[in-house]
Amino acid sequence: MKEWRLRPARDLGLAPAERLRSLSRERGLVGVTLNGLWRRTVRGYLAVAHSLEVEGRENLPAEPPFIMIANHCSHLDALTLAAALRGPAARQAHALAAGEVFFGTDPGAAFSAYAINALPVWRGATTRGALETLRTRLVEDRLVFILFPEGTRSRTGEMGAFQAGLARLVAGTSVPVVPCRIEGAHACWPAAQRLPRAGKLKLRIGPPLVFATTAPDAAGRHAITTACRAAVMALETSNSNEPQPEPSA
Amino acid sequence: MSTAFAHPVTVLIVFATAGTLALAAAVIGALTLTGRGSPGFRRELWLRLGSWCVLLPLMLGPVLAGREYTVLAVTLLGLLCYREYARATGLFRDRVLSAVTVLGILFANFAALDHWYGFFVALWPLTVSLLAVASIPQDRPEGYIQRVGLAVFGYMLFGAGLAHLGYMANDPNYRPIVLMLLTAVALNDVAAFTCGKLMGGPKLLPATSPNKTISGALGAVIVTGTVVVLLGRAIFTGTPMAAWHWLIPFGVLVSVAGQAGDLMLSSIKRDIGIKDMGVVLPGHGGILDRFNSLLLVSPAAFHFIGYFVGWGLGQPVRVITG
């Protein structure tokens, strides 16, 4: 018999509003149930209204932890990536979402936390401590992060530069990064529009990249950011016939 | 309304409670006006009083309102206590066992609502059996004893044990009894604190709860025991329970079980290494920090009274399942 190890919730002792916005938030039965209902609803909606087509599902790692990244130009993006997941990966999926947009008000924060299962990232205020918490949770709690390295929705539909936060999370770890490409989201729900309209959505999932041997220094982070952006770019329809980048060791 | 306040003990407890709150407000108000005590201390006192002003109507209201409301309130209390326990021990990460425990709590309270004693009793072994097997299909024997142990303990405390309080509502005479128990456990804490402060002396169990003294524990037994004996004398008139030689052990039992519940939660918190179980009640901590005494008092008092008087005898049984 192994020795008993009592591990209280990481967010124990936080006041309710604080807990909703905490990166240490851990869900109980209520959160799991609400998120499950939300996922099924969204999956149904994406199938009916957007005829979501997923390509390359076999590239998803067999089990968490891993990070899904994609181009970002619509609120549909995170929903689309989450809808591609099944089983434990779907249950463990946390979208890293803009704190200002999703966690600004208490009702908004409650919805983002309980339904979407999002974790807040505050623009320009992501501390080293916050990244460390995310990194620890990713590995120890075996989570899936859905993350858009551009940091904001593209207003034109063109993919912007990637920020270094992703590299800080994965440098020197064996956590795979799964590049994805979403097409059609900008036409269905661009940033300037209040509500989505029906239209075709296509998600292409590429082979995972691993950066276990990449040093967590500036050069390593640059290499990771570049490799990840190239991997997402390579999944564009016009590039799909070109050879895929080899996953790094 | 006339049914709710039919028993003089009910009237006495409700008025005494309201009077105590008013008196406390007056004392703290006087402290504030005269500027005595530090602002931090006064703020703490106001916070505690504020919590009580919200809590007491939530505790007394359902008991006065009726049988169904009482069972519903106990169900809610059980679920909230379990939530805090599961988050503190880490059991909440075991979704299957957590779900079965919650289901067990719901069923135990349903049996109380249904007034189906056979099912109420059967749920204890049935739920434990289910908890023992529920996580086996996951094929993850590592940590099996820990998670099943925690789940069984949780079900016993917040389901099987606490549901006795709701089951009492099946008796037409439940209001004064339940109110007496709620008052007694609250008084028990206050009496232990006050007697301990006034008399001092050796600590009771310093590693478990450094602030409790032997004099406080004994003082609480005397104060709470006396109140329970006097109220019990009025409540149980005409039954074998009204005899002093049964009322006195009953009073002692309520006080000791209340203090044991408190020490039990202290042991849990010490073992985990946390101070409070939650932050829901300002000035108190978590819900469990407030209601820990009730956990062991409920089944103990239920079976003591049940042995001499019985519960809900002659009342319709299986009111829902027929």
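qc> Chain B has eleven helices and no strands.
qc> done
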